[in-house]
């Protein structure tokens, strides 16, 4: 700030353009921004000068340098302004009298604090801007600077709004931690972060604060929200330590944005992301994702749009997911010293420097240590000696990314807590059996007192003791009190949600006596079990499961023998299955199977129930080989031990049939499914949910075998029964409707299928969310319905998201790859549909890339001879034909036809489709006789199997007419063609694309379409 410029003096009221230098503490940046905006709107030139007060520079010299600034110097007076350095009031009084008093006209001031300030600050004549509205504050500001306060015209709508008046909150402000009034330093980080977000392109405003544990990433993000919040209309904080919790808390933003949605959080989440993307009703939004250490779980859920996203994470891999990165390191030494002296005023600057060096400048440790050291009579030298010598021989094992001083410092702090409020240590230890981060202690306080150990019962039942324990932990910055709003918009009362840093979590957990460990972990396990909603198929209750599941690991829940605790594990696995969290469910089931086999024995009844849930998840994830092995083991054991009619055995047999379907063994699957259905009907009756599930599985097998009419009849019965006995939006009901619409489409009843599927998609999005696997399948079938209807070019007037088949297919594939993974069976099904659509619509490169990937993945995942491999090769042959590789196309389609015939028989619709394509390639290659022979046989088989007017049969008839013309049998060709065209007019309509194509004598083809198994 030093220089040789001549100071510029003030001007008279209203006399031309002035320069005003606003001098402010970084903590008060929002006030400086608002003041500067008000002045600039009135033609003033504004210079912003942030106050820095290095302790080694005399305050008098700093103020003299300040007088070199341009124009009038406007000081934003606050307790923060006078504390930086830190400086005492005596220092300030002396400096103000020496520098400001002789030249008061150079200075003006506004006050944004009600705290006590140095008495000599009266020379600045500060005018108060607090406890009033923006209009009065602006009037006072202008009056203090001798500027006219005439009303200004309203700015044009296109002009970006200025900063909000700092005393007013953003329209939406959610779950942001309380402002830390001891926050120190980080000014360069704030400036860089602000400029990176401000200058980012729309949709790309994502920034990640990354660094090791304990450097203050969360505190930095919270201060950013408070410091820059006046520039946003929405500021929303989300705990992003897990995908499920992130989804739930982001969904809770919906009612705050005024979005009209139902209570299902899947619907709310979709509405929120769409609202943020469009910037309606708010375009100035800031979303903070705290603790997002696993980018792979969350990156696809980060909103885009005109607002900004701020992420805190230990993981720099966010840089690979369209986020800018800023590394947060430990404090600079001057920041450490300033922070310690604010936290512990009794320490000298030299002592603060020694303590900072001993604690390696780690902010979390400085905060916790300086707090109690200020209340202690222990000297810094004594404390450092303790750090060097250790407090006992038992060294706590801490993760390698934690500083070495941390373990000893924490042992000292725990001893201090034991001496003051020993119950606070009990509470702290209890919290470590939950996942780090937000601790739902309300689950503990809701437990009956007689179920708690005596020491904990007293803590939870005595409000005064509870408050003492909480306040002691807060005083030493061990925990943070947080309130959080539930999906029902009910505010959790203060004290029922604690935030525990992962560093603190680990050190306290590892430093716990064995007796306490066993007692406390049992309490947490029972609390989690009591929180089980017990209806994992109810999507309304999924937020409750999303809250519970992250804590299972830390409560070591798999080592419990309690039936209600084991039931919680089953229900969590069921929730993960229905909500589409397959990978998380598989991991939990794998750990559970290993733990329970050791705990209970390999043949305990719980093992077979766990196997059922585990195989469901494996099957849903496409791992049919592992699933089949586990299912068969369960079936064999249960049949031998309990008999064929045992319900557990029947359930395992039903699962085995599903595995056989996935492996392509459809006849075996149908036989087994029919046997299971008959047994359930005999034991439970027609209306039991297990009977309906077995009936559904029979239809799946029938459909895979090409028996579409029979599958339709069974699916209709199941759908109607589920509508009657289950909720309309139950996942099973939604699934039955998808299957029923799919059957209609496979039978060529496209309009009926589209009508049912359109309504079903709406229900699935509301009940389950856009990215749920059921919803993705529903949207995929809707896209194919519209594609087959031939109305792909008709614009739709309304709808949520893409409506046309091409856009819908692309959207489903993109979400399937993100949510399920590129090799998931559903994703490969979606990729197949997108490839076929791209081939027909001229994007042959995309079609080929997708098709080759599907073939390669099927060849790796499935056994040779699986019908899906043959079908995928048939599709690939069509692409090769289109790019002119005729010979290779011919070889591949003949191979596909032979493989499909071996796999499912010569009359299966898939084989008929392969034959349709093969006859076209024979004709193209000059084998007219072979083409005519094959197409003639195909017509007979299609007519027998599907009926004369099924769309695939009609395609075979048109193809056969073309081959007859190739043989110069024009009379027969004309007869076959005219009959087929007449049936096309009657079945699909004269203007349908297939009808028009047939009249133009374009040879028809068939696309293989993998079915859900």
What does this protein structure show overall?
The termini are far apart. By secondary structure, this protein is of the alpha/beta class. The protein has a six-stranded parallel β-sheet with strand order 6-8-9-10-7-11, sandwiched between helices. It has a five-stranded parallel β-sheet with strand order 2-1-3-4-5. The protein is 57% helix and 6% strand. The chain contains 43 helices and 14 strands. The longest helix is centred in the middle third of the chain and has 19 residues.
Keywords:
43 helices; single chain; 1013 residues; globular; five-stranded parallel beta sheet; alpha/beta
**Strand coverage percent:** 5-15%
Q: Helical residue percent? A: 55-70%
Mean pLDDT across all amino acids: 86
Strand runs, count: 14
How do the strands of the widest beta sheet line up side by side? 6-8-9-10-7-11
Rg: 35 Å
Major beta-sheet overview: 6 strands, parallel
Shape: globular
Distance between the first and last residues' Cα: 73 Å
Low-confidence runs of at least 5 consecutive residues: 1-15, 391-404, 484-495, 792-798
Q: What's the helix count?
A: 43
Q: Structural class of the helix and strand makeup?
A: alpha/beta
Quick summary of this structure?
By secondary structure, the chain is of the alpha/beta class. The protein is 57% helix and 6% strand. Helix 12 runs parallel beside helix 14, helix 27 runs parallel beside helix 29 (689-704) and helix 33 packs antiparallel against helix 34 (805-819).
């Amino acid at each position: 700030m030093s220089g040789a410029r001549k100071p510029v003096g003030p001007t008279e009221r209203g006399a031309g353009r002035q320069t005003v230098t606003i001098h402010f503490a970084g903590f008060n940046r929002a006030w400086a921004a608002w003041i500067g905006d008000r002045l600039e709107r009135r033609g003033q030139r504004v210079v912003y000068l942030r106050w820095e007060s290095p302790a080694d520079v005399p305050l008098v010299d700093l103020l003299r340098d300040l007088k070199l600034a341009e124009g009038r110097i406007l000081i934003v007076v606050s307790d923060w302004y006078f504390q930086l350095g830190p400086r005492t009031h005596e220092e300030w009084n002396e400096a103000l009298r020496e520098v400001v008093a002789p030249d008061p006209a150079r200075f003006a001031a506004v006050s944004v604090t009600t705290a006590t300030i140095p008495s000599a600050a009266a020379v600045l004549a500060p005018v108060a801007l607090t406890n009033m509205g923006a209009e009065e504050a602006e009037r006072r500001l202008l009056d203090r600077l001798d500027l006219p306060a005439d009303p200004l015209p309203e700015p044009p709508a296109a002009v970006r709004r200025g900063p909000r008046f700092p005393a007013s909150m953003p329209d939406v402000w959610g779950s942001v931690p309380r402002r830390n009034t001891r926050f120190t330093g980080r000014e360069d980080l704030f400036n860089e972060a602000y400029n990176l977000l401000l200058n980012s392109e729309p949709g790309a405003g994502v920034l990640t604060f990354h660094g090791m544990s304990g450097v203050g990433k969360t505190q930095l993000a919270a201060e950013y929200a408070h410091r820059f919040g006046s520039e946003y209309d929405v500021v929303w904080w989300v705990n992003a330590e897990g995908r499920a919790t992130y989804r739930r808390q982001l969904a809770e933003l919906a009612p705050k944005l005024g979005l009209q949605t139902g209570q299902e959080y899947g619907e709310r989440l979709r509405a929120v992301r769409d609202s943020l993307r469009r910037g309606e009703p708010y375009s100035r939004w800031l979303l903070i994702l705290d603790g997002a250490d696993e980018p792979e779980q969350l990156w696809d859920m980060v909103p885009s749009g005109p607002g900004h996203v701020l992420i805190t994470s230990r993981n720099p891999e966010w840089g690979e997911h369209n986020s800018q990165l800023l590394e947060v390191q430990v404090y600079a030494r001057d920041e450490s010293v300033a922070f310690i002296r604010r936290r512990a005023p009794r320490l000298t600057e030299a002592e603060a420097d020694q303590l900072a060096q001993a604690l390696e400048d780690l902010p979390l440790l400085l905060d916790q240590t300086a707090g109690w050291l200020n209340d202690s009579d222990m000297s810094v030298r004594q404390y450092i000696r303790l750090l060097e010598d250790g407090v006992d021989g038992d060294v706590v094992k801490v993760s390698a990314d934690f500083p070495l001083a941390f373990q000893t410092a924490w042992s000292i702090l725990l001893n201090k807590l034991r001496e003051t409020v020993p119950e606070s240590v009990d509470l702290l230890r209890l919290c470590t059996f939950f996942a780090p981060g937000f601790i739902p202690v309300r689950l503990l306080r809701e437990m009956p007192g007689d179920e708690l150990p005596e020491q904990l019962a007293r803590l939870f039942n005595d409000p005064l003791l509870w408050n003492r324990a909480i306040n002691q932990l807060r005083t030493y910055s061990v925990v943070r009190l947080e309130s959080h709003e539930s999906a029902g918009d009910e505010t959790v009362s203060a004290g029922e949600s604690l935030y525990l840093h992962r560093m603190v979590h680990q050190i306290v957990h590892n430093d716990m006596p064995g007796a306490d460990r066993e007692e406390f972990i049992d309490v947490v396990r029972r609390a989690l079990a009591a929180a089980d909603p017990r209806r994992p198929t109810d999507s309304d209750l999924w937020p409750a499961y999303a809250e519970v599941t992250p804590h299972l690991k830390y409560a070591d829940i798999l080592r419990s023998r309690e039936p209600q605790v084991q039931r919680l594990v089953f229900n969590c696995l069921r929730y993960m299955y229905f909500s589409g969290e397959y990978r998380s469910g598989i991991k939990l089931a794998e750990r559970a199977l290993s733990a329970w086999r050791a705990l209970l024995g390999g043949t305990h009844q719980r093992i077979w129930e766990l196997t059922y849930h585990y195989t469901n998840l494996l099957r849903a994830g496409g791992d049919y080989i592992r699933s089949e092995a586990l299912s068969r083991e369960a079936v064999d054991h249960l049949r031998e031990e309990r008999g064929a009619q045992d319900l557990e055995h029947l359930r395992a047999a039903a699962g085995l049939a599903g595995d056989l379907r996935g492996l392509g063994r459809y006849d075996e699957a149908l036989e087994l499914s029919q046997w299971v259905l008959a047994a359930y009907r005999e034991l439970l009756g027609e209306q039991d949910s297990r009977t309906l599930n077995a009936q559904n599985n029979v239809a799946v097998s029938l459909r895979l075998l090409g028996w579409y009419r029979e599958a339709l009849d069974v699916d209709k019965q199941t759908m109607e029964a589920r509508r009657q006995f289950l909720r309309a939006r139950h996942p099973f009901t939604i699934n039955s409707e998808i299957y029923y619409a799919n059957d209609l489409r496979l039978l060529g009843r496209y309009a009926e299928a589209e009508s049912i599927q359109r309504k079903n998609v709406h229900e699935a999005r509301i009940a389950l969310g856009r990215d749920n696997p059921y919803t993705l399948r529903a949207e995929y079938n809707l896209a194919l319905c519209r594609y087959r209807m031939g109305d792909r070019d008709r614009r739709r007037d309304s709808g949520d998201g893409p409506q046309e088949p091409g856009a819908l297919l692309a959207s489903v594939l993109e979400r399937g790859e993100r949510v399920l993974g590129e090799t998931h069976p559903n994703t490969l099904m979606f990729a197949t549909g997108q490839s076929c659509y791209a081939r027909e619509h001229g994007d042959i490169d995309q079609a080929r890339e997708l098709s080759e990937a599907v073939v390669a993945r099927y060849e790796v995942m499935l056994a040779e001879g699986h019908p899906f491999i043959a079908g995928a090769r048939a599709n690939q042959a069509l692409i090769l034909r289109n790019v002119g590789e005729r010979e290779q196309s011919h070889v591949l389609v003949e191979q596909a036809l032979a493989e499909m015939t071996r796999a499912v028989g010569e009359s299966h619709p898939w084989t008929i489709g392969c034959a349709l394509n093969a006859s076209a390639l024979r004709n193209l290659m000059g084998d007219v006789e072979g083409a005519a022979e094959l197409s003639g046989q195909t017509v007979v088989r299609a007519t027998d199997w599907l009926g004369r007017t099924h769309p695939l049969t009609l395609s075979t008839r048109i193809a056969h007419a073309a081959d007859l013309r190739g043989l110069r049998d024009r009379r027969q060709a004309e007869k076959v063609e005219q009959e087929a065209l007449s049936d096309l007019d009657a079945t699909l309509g004269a203007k349908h694309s297939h009808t028009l194509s047939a009249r133009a004598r374009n040879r028809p083809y068939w696309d293989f379409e993998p079915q859900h198994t």
